[in-house]
Batch of 2 targets.
Target 1
Amino acid sequence: MTAVQDVHNFRLVGGDVNVLRVGAFKAGAEVAYADKGDSAGFGGSVKAGYTLFGGALTAGGTYTRLGRGFTNPSNVALRPGTSDLSLRGGLKLGATELRAEHSHQEFQVQGVDRQRSRVGLVQTLAGNFEMDAAVTNDQVSGALAGASGSSEATAAEFKTKWGPTPRLQLWTEARRHLSLAGPALFPDVWGVGAGYKLTDLLSLEASQRFVSRPDSQGEYSLSSLGLRANMGQGGQAWGSYQLSGGISGAGNAAVLGLRNQLQLRPDLAASVMFERRMGVSAASLTDPVRALPFVQAEDDYWSAGLGLEFLPKHSPYRLSARGEYKDGTLQSTRLVSMAGDVAFDASLALLSRQEFTQNARPGAPLSRRLTSIWGLALRPARTDKLNMLAKVQWTNDHNPIGGGVLVSQGAERKAIGAAEVIWTPIPKLELGTRYAVRHTEADRLYTDGTPQTVTSWAEYTGGHVNYDVNRWLSVRGDARVLVEQTTSTQTWDGAPALAFRPVNGLEFATGYRFGNLSDPDFSVRGGHGAFVTLSAALTEKLFPTAAEFWRRRF
C-alpha cells in the first residue's frame, strides 16, 4: 500500500490517562501525535496534585513538552518546540486563600524564554463577590527583548469577580508596574467585563480594556463582544468581535463560526462547518490582544465545509463525500473527496477513492493534485488469515507541495500498480509484503525556456512483521527497497520498533529507522533516525469481509 501525499490532510491522535490516585495524591498524563504535510511531532504532559486537610492545603504541578513538528490548528497556543513547567500551591483559611504560582516556558522556534511568578491573596465575600490581589514578576529573554536581550517587570494586579444572579457575572482587572528593566513587554492595563447567560444554550460576553505603554504605542483600548450558542444535536455556533484603538477599522478583528452535525436518516449523516476570521493588525505583538509571547502571522480567511456519509445497514456498499473551501490572505485551499466500496461477497470487494486538492500561497506557484485510486480486495473463501489487495493509482500533480519524483515545479503524472498480501498464521503474528511498480512522466522547463519531457520507472518491495508478546507489548519491524530503473539507483530503509498499549485503543511505538530511502510515495514521513509515534490502536481483529479488513488500510 503506497503512502499518498495530501497537503490538506491533518491527523491528530491523543489520549488522557489517570496514571495514579492514592488518597489525596493523584497524577495523570496526556499524550498526542500530530501529522500534517511534511511535519510530524509528538506532544505530551504530566501532571500531579496533592491535597490535605479537606482541601485547605493544595499543591501541584504540570510539565508540557511539544516537539518541533507538532501542530494543532484548533489551538494555536500550542506552539511547536515548546516546553512549559508550572507549579502552584494554595492555603485556604475560611473565606481567605493564599495562592502562589510559578511557571517557566521555553519557545525554541521563536527563541524566547519566559518566567512568571505570582503571589496573591483571594478573599470571598458575601453575595458571590471575590477579590484577588497579587504581586507578579515577569522575566523574558531572547528575541522579544530586543537589543537588551532581557526584560523584567514587577507589577501589582487586582481583580474582582461578582455574580449578582446565576445568569450574570461581572468582573474588573487592573495591572500597574512597580519596577521595569528593559523593554515594556507587559503594559499597564485596566478593564471591565460582563457575561450573561441568555438561555441555557446561549451566552453573551463583553469586555473593555484600556492599555498604557511607555513606548511609541502610547495608549489605546480594546473592545470585545462575543456570543456562543449550543444548538443541540451536535451543533455549535460562536462569534466574537474585537476593536483595537478606535473605530477606523485598522485594528478590527472578528471570528464567526458555525459547526453542525445532522443525522438526516438512519443511513445518511451530514456535517456542515463555516468560519470567518479577521485578525488584529494594529496592536503590538506583545500586548494583551495576543497570547504572549506567541509570535505568528495572523491569517484573515473564511472557510466552509460539507460532508456526507451514506452507510446503509446490512447493505454491501457504502459511500462518503466531503468538500472544503478556504479563502485567506496567507493560504487558500480547495478539497473535494469521494470514497466508497462494494462487497460482492465476504471474499471479494471493490474499493475506490477520488480526490482533488488545490493550494495557493503568496509568492509560490499554484499547486494542484488529482488522484484516483481503485483496489480489488481478495481472501480465500474458507479462511480470514490471508488477505490480498490489488491496487492501481493515477495521480496528476501540478507544482507538487514538497516536491515530486522528478520535478518540484511543473506538471508530473504518475501511475502506480501495487499488490499487497497480509498473512496472520496465528492471532499474535502478522506478516505482510508489498510490491509496486511506478511510471512517472514530468514536464521540465529549462532556464532558457527549452521544454523537456522526462520519464522514470521504479520498482518497490517492502515487508513488515508484527508479534504481540502480550496485550500490552508488541515487537515489530519493516524494511523497504526502491530501485530506480532509469538511473539504476537503489535506496532502502528499515526500522525495528517496540509498541506499547497502556490502555485499549491507544498505542505508543518507538524505534530507529536506518537507511536512505526518501520518496513522496514509498517512504515514511518524518525521515530517518529515532522516532516515537502515538496512534489509535485497532483492537478489533475480526473482519467478516475483505472490504472491512482493507477499508482502514486503503
Target 2
Amino acid sequence: MSATTAAPTKAPREPLNGVDTPTLFATINVVRENPGLAKFRFRASGKWVDGTYSEARIESFTGAGTEHSHKTEFRYSADHPAVLVGQDRGPLPVEFLLIGLVSCITAGIGNIAAARGVTLTSVESQIEGDLDVQGVLGLSDAVRNGYERIRVTFTIAGDAPPEKLRQIVEQSRARSAVYDVLTNGVPVDLTINTR
C-alpha cells in the first residue's frame, strides 16, 4: 500500500432487524474490557392464589454494576387445565419453560443476524415437550417429573443463503442462556420460611 492510499475503513453497522446494532457492538466491547459488568441477577416473585393457580411478577434486576427496573412491572398467571385439576386460568408452568426457550433462541437469532448484516424477513418457531405426569402425580419413581424430550423447529427467511441462516440459528442455540440451563442444569437453592 502506498503512503497516499489509506486503508479502507469499515462502515459502522446500522440498526437492523429492530436491533440497535451499534449499541450491541458497543456493549460487547465494554463488557470485553470490564468483565465484571457481565454479572446479572434476575428476580421474580410469586404468590399462590388458590388451587393450582398462582400469580408471579417481574420488576427489577441487577446487572452492569447497578440496579435496573423494567419499564413496566410484568405480571403472569399460571394454572393447570381442568384435566390436571386446575381451572385453566393461565399457562402451565412447564409451558412458560417452553416459551422461555423459544423466546431466548429467537432473540438471539435477531441479534446474531443483525451483527452479521443479514436482514431477516421471517422467523417462526414451533416447540413441544413430552411429559409423563406419572412422576408428578407420585405414581412412579421411575418416571421423571419434567419433560422427557423437547423439540423445537425454526423456519427462518432472510437475505442470506440457507446455510448462513442455519448457522445463525445454531449460534443462537449455542449462546442461549435458557438452552444452557435446560441442557446443562443449574444448582437450585430452595429456602423455606414458615409463618
